[in-house]
Amino acid sequence: MVEKDQKIQVIVRKRPLNSKEISKGDQDILQRLSADTLIVREQKLKVDLTKYIEEHHFNFDGVYSEDISNQELYISAVQPIVQASFQGAKVTCFAYGQTGSGKTFTMMGEESIPGLYLLAATDLFYYRDQYFRNIKFTVSFYEIYCGKLHDLLNDRNQLFAREDAKQNVNIVGLQNKPVETVEALMKIIGTGMESRTTGQTGANDDSSRSHAILEINLKQGKKVVGKMSFIDLAGSERGADVSGADFKTRMDGAEINKSLLALKECIRALDQEKRHTPFRGSKLTQVLKDSFLGNCRTVMIANVSPGLLSCEHTLNTLRYADRVKELKKGEKGDKAGKDDKLANILMLPRQNVNVVRYNVEENEETLPPPKPIKNEEDSSRLLFKKANKDDNKFKSKIGSGISGGKNVNQKPFMPPPKAVEKKPPQVNMEELSEKHEQLIGIILAEEEDLINSHRKMIDEMVDMIKHQMGLLSEVDKPGSDVDNYVRELDTVLSIKEDMIKGIREKLRVFNDHLRQEEDLTLAFEKNKAVMDVFNLDAHDDDLLQDIDD
Ligand SMILES: Nc1ncnc2c1ncn2[C@@H]1O[C@H](COP(=O)(O)OP(=O)(O)OP(=O)(O)O)[C@@H](O)[C@H]1O
């Protein structure tokens, strides 16, 4: 059960394997070990092609398994903080995770399965009717798609966020509809959801590329006295669409990546009660500014898919959720900072602290079954012991069996010499990714500047055309001042020339950067392919070192 006084709660929800995954023979690699612990059993290949399992242990404020309903999740994780919105708090609930991991199922629910929107709305109206009759509700629903705001309750009209003199962020033109009943509220949300999925091209993956923000304001007269927000975030893997895809997809991916990283930083700032909240880092955090300041309650639900085929995305989701609160645990010090910097780049996976490795028998096709836990309280330590000592079947043939955490001096394993004739190049993926990240930032800013300058030029040209028409009609008159006409025309043409030159230069620089970005993407893909061949991730520094030695 989530504690209602805690400012930030990070919980994980695992969905069941779906029929498609089952028909593909996908396996469930996630095990909820206790109320707050989850294990991911990642299947890996050594350089000599023997299989081994890497177990990643994660701790969160709550871990919910596939048999938990939306209602049970709501009662345990969200209901305790809903009431706070009547005491002036800004209550925010995020659904984070890979596309198809259950974010919308959690938020919206499905036919006859209520989601958090309806469950929370029912309680809000109940509390209001019982204890706060002078409060009225209004609702707004909008999305952030490709860095732009669209009103889901007004034909997806584009909206603009502006900061006023008091540094409050206002969304100009956003519809804020009064609602009197839960049914009316749900009808409005339904309209917004429809607009979200069909508004673009009708393609389903468009909704997974946008963040949907539902805000229920509690008002006394004109004054907002509390707020409940639900954010169904873009598919987290979309942020990694920075290589391979076409340019527009890469740009969208970069924008999503930027917003998810900025979101993490803002929640961390809130968690650590920092004086500065970096909400200007993205459009998403900018519009959510007041949810990060003052009296706030936040729940982040990290949704995960259970299948082996989703393993990489699941690990990325869990690492992201882990980092949202990790520093509070105060145990990782400088190393966490360094790893975090690396992991921020292109959402690269970061090495976990609690990792257990053990071999898979040669003829063993499937993952080992989850080990029974006797004592939930002490389950995490129990598993470490088992993997290391008792279980002959999974005992490591070469090396320690346990790495990371407490046993840092022991190398995970040494690959046999004959299997490492080819050496992977020592590539600095970190540097490459950092360069790419910077370049994407520059390109996005240049794109905006180019479009604005072009628009400004057209406006000025229209004025100049009007002026030139005036000149022509003057010069056509008998006895006109031709000298003046020539002088004016010369001035107009040189202004035009300068304007065109200026835009051309911007275009040239922009094109140069696009080309550089393509080259970097190619270099990144090439090096990633090499790392994949050697089954390394960007953090297998020890292993790279071993192979090099
Ligand atoms: N806890 C659950 N129990 C049963 N089915 C679930 C659960 N979570 C998700 N599903 C099913 O999985 C599918 C994908 O879920 P959902 O659409 O919510 O994913 P999503 O993360 O919102 O994806 P997207 O980013 O594309 O919107 C749906 O068919 C949904 O019914």
TrEMBL record:
One matching Pfam family: Kinesin
InterPro entries reported in the protein's UniProt record: Kinesin-like_fam, Kinesin_motor_CS, Kinesin_motor_dom, Kinesin_motor_dom_sf, P-loop_NTPase
Ranges where the Kinesin motor domain occurs: 7-327
Keywords: ATP-binding, Cytoplasm, Cytoskeleton, Microtubule, Motor protein, Nucleotide-binding
Compartment list: Cytoplasm, Cytoskeleton
Single annotated GO MF: microtubule binding
GO annotation, cellular component aspect: microtubule
Keyword Nucleotide-binding: yes
Span list, region Disordered: 395-423
Binding site for ATP: 97-104
Principal location class: cytoplasm
UniProt superkingdom: Eukaryota
Classification via PROSITE patterns: KINESIN_MOTOR_1, KINESIN_MOTOR_2
GO biological process: microtubule depolymerization; microtubule-based movement
Family from the record: Belongs to the TRAFAC class myosin-kinesin ATPase superfamily. Kinesin family. KIN-13 subfamily.
Protein name: Kinesin-like protein
Organism of provenance: Stentor coeruleus
